[in-house]
TrEMBL record:
Residues 45-278 form the ER-bound oxygenase mpaB/mpaB'/Rubber oxygenase catalytic domain. InterPro entries: MPAB/Lcp_cat_dom. It holds the Pfam family MPAB_Lcp_cat. One of its GO terms (molecular function) is oxidoreductase activity. It comes from Gordonia oryzae. PANTHER family: BLR2777 PROTEIN (PTHR36151), ER-BOUND OXYGENASE MPAB_MPAB'_RUBBER OXYGENASE CATALYTIC DOMAIN-CONTAINING PROTEIN (PTHR36151:SF3). This is DUF2236 domain-containing protein. It comes from the Bacteria.
Length: 316
C-alpha cells in the first residue's frame, strides 16, 4: 500500500493505540530494559534546542495543522484563537523536556496524555482521535522536519549520513511518547517519501488560515504604540516575515494559506539563508545560555558538556 492508502485506512479508526510497556509499566519481558533516551552525543541534542530554531516556528506549527484532523483537533479543543502565545508556551516546553530532561519517558507520556481526550469529527463526518498513531506520528514528524530543515537551511549543511542519523535518533524520541509506531518510516529515504506524500494532503483548514493571518494582513499594532509610529516600525518586520518566514514554508502550505511567493522572494530568502550559515562561527562563540533555549542549555550544563565544539562539520 502507498503512504496515502495506509493513512486513509488507518486514520478512520480514530482510536488511540498506546504502548504502555516500559520502565513505568513493567512486564516480565521488559522490566530490566533501560528507558530509551537521547543524549549529548546525539545530533538532535546538538541542533533541536538551538535558538535559531525560532525561524522555523511557522513551518512547524503550520505543517502540522494543514492536515485536517489535526487542524480540527486544535479548533475543537485548543485556545489558539484566544491565546495563541499562551498555547505555544504550554505545549513547547514539555516536548523540549522529552528530549533534554533526565526523565524523558515521564515528559513523553505527559505530552501524550495531553491528547487523550482530543477527538471529534472532520468535515466529511469521519471521526479523528489525536492518539491515533497516524495522527500522532505526523505531529512528531513535523518536529523531526524542523530539526532537519532549520539545521540544513540556517545553521550548516547536513550530509546524507547526518540526516539519516537524525532520523534514526527521532525514532528513539518517538518511542518516549508511548504511542504505537506502526506508521513510522524505517529509513530516512522512507521518511522523505512519507513527508512528500503528506504535503499533498494539505487543506486550508480554519486553524492554519487563522494562524497565518498576520502574514497576509501584517502584524497587529500593540495598543501602546501610536498608529503612525507602528506603520514605520512594522514595515521592515512585515517584509522580513513575508520573505524569511514564508520562505521556510513548503509550497503546498503557501498555496493552501494563499501566501504570496515569487522568484524574487525566493532569491532573497536564499541570500538570507546563506548569510545565516556564514554566521555560524559567530553563533558558536555565544554563551551556551544564549545559543540554546533554556531547557537545552540547562541539560548541556547538567551533563558538563560544551556543545559548541561538537558536530560543526558535515560527516561523510
Amino acid at each position: 500500500m502507498t503512504v496515502n492508502q495506509d493513512f486513509d485506512s488507518a486514520i478512520r479508526e480514530a482510536q488511540p493505540v498506546l504502548v504502555e510497556a516500559g520502565p513505568e509499566h513493567p512486564t516480565p519481558e521488559n522490566d530490566t530494559l533501560p528507558t530509551p533516551r537521547l543524549g549529548a552525543d546525539s545530533l538532535i541534542w546538538k541542533f533541536y534546542g538551538d535558538i535559531r530554531g525560532v525561524l522555523g516556528f511557522q513551518r512547524l506549527a503550520g505543517t502540522e495543522n494543514c492536515i485536517e484532523q489535526l487542524g480540527q483537533g486544535v479548533l475543537d479543543h485548543s485556545v489558539i484563537f484566544d491565546d495563541f502565545l499562551g498555547r505555544a508556551r504550554r505545549t513547547g516546553p514539555p516536548v523540549m523536556r522529552t528530549v533534554y530532561s533526565t526523565e524523558p519517558a515521564k515528559w513523553g507520556r505527559t505530552v501524550r496524555d495531553f491528547h487523550r481526550d482530543i477527538k471529534g469529527t472532520i468535515s466529511d463526518g469521519s471521526r479523528y482521535h489525536a492518539l491515533n498513531p497516524e495522527l500522532f506520528y505526523w505531529a512528531h514528524a513535523t518536529f523531526v522536519d524542523q530539526v532537519l530543515y532549520i539545521t540544513d537551511t540556517f545553521i550548516r549543511r547536513l550530509s546524507e549520513a547526518e540526516k539519516e542519523q537524525i532520523f534514526t535518533e527521532s525514532k528513539v524520541w518517538y518511542e518516549l511518547y508511548g504511542v504505537s509506531a506502526r506508521s513510522q518510516p524505517q529509513t530516512y529515504a522512507e521518511f522523505r517519501e512519507y513527508w512528500d506524500c503528506m504535503l499533498e494532503r494539505f487543506v486550508p483548514h480554519k486553524t492554519v488560515v487563522y494562524a497565518t493571518g498576520y502574514i497576509r494582513k501584517g502584524l497587529p499594532r500593540p495598543r501602546r504604540i501610536p498608529a503612525p509610529a507602528w506603520r514605520v516600525i512594522s514595515a521592515p518586520l512585515n517584509a522580513f516575515i513575508r520573505t524569511v518566514v514564508v520562505g521556510t514554508l513548503p509550497q503546498q502550505m503557501r498555496e493552501v494559506c494563499t501566501l504570496e511567493w515569487d522568484a524574487k522572494r525566493e532569491k532573497n530568502f536564499q541570500r538570507f539563508a546563506r548569510f545565516m550559515r556564514a554566521l555560524n562561527p559567530v553563533f558558536r562563540r555565544l554563551p551556551v545560555r544564549w545559543l540554546y533555549v533554556p531547557w537545552a542549555a540547562e541539560a548541556w550544563e547538567a551533563v558538563g558538556v560544551d556543545p559548541r565544539p561538537l558536530h560543526n562539520k558535515p560527516v561523510t
